[in-house]
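Journal club prep — side note

Before the paper discussion, L.F. wants everyone to see what a predicted structure for a comparable chain looks like in token form. Sequence:
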Amino acid sequence: MKLQLALDTPDLTHELELAGKVAAQVDLIEAGTPLLIREGIRVVRELRRRHRGRPIVADIKVIDAGEPIAELAFAAGATVVTVLGCASDDVIERVVRSAKRYDGHVMADSLSLANIPERARQLRALGVDLLCINRRGFNYTKHNKEERLNELAELVEQIDLPVYLAGGIDVPELTRLRDWPLAGVIVGAAIADASSPIEAAKKMRDILDRK
């Protein structure tokens, strides 16, 4: 299971420093949406320059145009570009075309999807490589925390794409998630806001690497 670091604040200096501290513990580094909106595509270029051994994710969440937007990110050095799963098939196909030109990958975000397993099958047919289940946009039918986790686990089992899970994942929860059939987890605040981001990242790395 991969560990993806999400650089979610619009403070470029802070986020570059954070990435520099914990890069050795994570598998992918994500330029988060707020950071990209404030600083532009140069964020991707700077992360690629500093972290050549790590895949860079541009969390653009493409919803319109598709190819021209994805092209900017891939040309700047992004390995993965995100698109909203609810975007039109035409937009998604355009992003996929751009990804193929750069030997990159497309990750769809589950925000606003009513039927995630069904749309995941369609996205796979369109050439999407990965699906991010964003818990903050997930409509649970259960109220108890344990029941919600079980509901989410059942959903992951139904999806015919490699799944990355995002949204409030911390160290204790990761101990449980490591046994799920996930391709990866996306973590932001649990590392960035920790008293020691390095130690938090190491703990997560140890959990995922544990046999």
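L.F.'s comment for the group: The CA atoms of residues 153 and 206 lie 22 Å apart. Keep this in mind when we get to the figures.
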